[in-house]
């Protein structure tokens, strides 16, 4: 059962693992750094988000407090932005950057930005596919070499197709996240939430967050390459 432990795979796996660790350390470091730096307008994350939403005609989008650290997200189904404690009530550079990024998602949603619509549409089926894929893959591999070989290969293929959908999800997510951060910086400038000399810090905070999405995509791609290699050998 040591399929996939030959060729370039161990190196790819190691590289993607190191990249994931690097990205997660980088975002934690950026968050802790910019959570200690107060922003110059003294606005909290919730106030900054409210200002951006209202300026973009999104007065009906609610802002709620949610537990956790960096658990901030925009929920398109309920049109609610949920901000964590360290963002909602904090008047730091990290808080307004993250709040502006989530506002960017709300603006994308309001504009019916194509990639966001696609991501929202596939999110739930892909969530199921990511869980079920391994069941098909493991049974597929176990059946390989038995009298049910053909059936085994067929199961493996379904698993791989499901896993490919997960890679597509990450591929769609990355530009959506980059776009939300781009919108965040524009809005922070236009709405007077950010001073010019704060741009660099906000940019670094948002870039670090985007890196985690890139790492997730890389990890999923490496897994898919491994599965295709297993299939090739079978
Ligand atoms: Zn985002």
Automatic annotation (TrEMBL):
Pfam families, per the entry: Zn_peptidase_2
Keywords, alphabetical: Membrane, Transmembrane, Transmembrane helix
Keyword Transmembrane among record annotations: yes
Transmembrane segments: 122-142, 154-172, 210-229
Top-rank taxon: Bacteria
InterPro entries assigned to the protein according to its UniProt record, in alphabetical order: Zn_peptidase_2 (IPR007395)
Protein name according to UniProt: Zinc metallopeptidase
Species of origin: Gallibacter intestinalis
């Amino acid at each position: 059962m040591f399929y996939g432990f030959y060729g370039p795979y161990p190196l790819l796996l190691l590289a993607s693992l190191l990249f994931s660790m690097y990205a997660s350390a980088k975002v934690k470091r950026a968050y802790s750094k910019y959570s200690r730096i107060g922003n110059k307008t003294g606005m909290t994350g919730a106030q900054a988000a409210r200002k951006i939403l209202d300026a973009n005609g999104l007065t009906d989008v609610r802002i709620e407090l949610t537990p956790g650290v960096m658990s901030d997200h925009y929920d398109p189904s309920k049109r609610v932005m949920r901000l964590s404690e360290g963002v909602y009530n904090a008047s730091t550079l990290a808080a307004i950057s993250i709040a502006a990024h989530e506002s960017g998602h709300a603006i994308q949603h309001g504009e019916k930005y194509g990639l966001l619509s696609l991501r929202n549409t596939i999110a739930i089926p892909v969530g199921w596919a990511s869980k079920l894929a391994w069941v098909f893959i493991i049974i597929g591999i176990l059946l390989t070499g038995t009298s049910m070989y053909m059936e085994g290969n067929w199961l493996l293929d379904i698993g791989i197709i499901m896993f490919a959908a997960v890679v597509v999800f990450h591929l769609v997510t990355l530009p959506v996240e980059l776009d939300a951060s781009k919108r965040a910086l524009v809005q922070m400038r236009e709405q007077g939430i950010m001073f010019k000399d704060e741009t660099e810090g906000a940019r670094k905070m948002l870039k670090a967050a985007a890196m985690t999405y890139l790492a997730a995509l890389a990890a999923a791609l490496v897994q898919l390459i491994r599965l295709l290699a297993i299939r090739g050998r079978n």
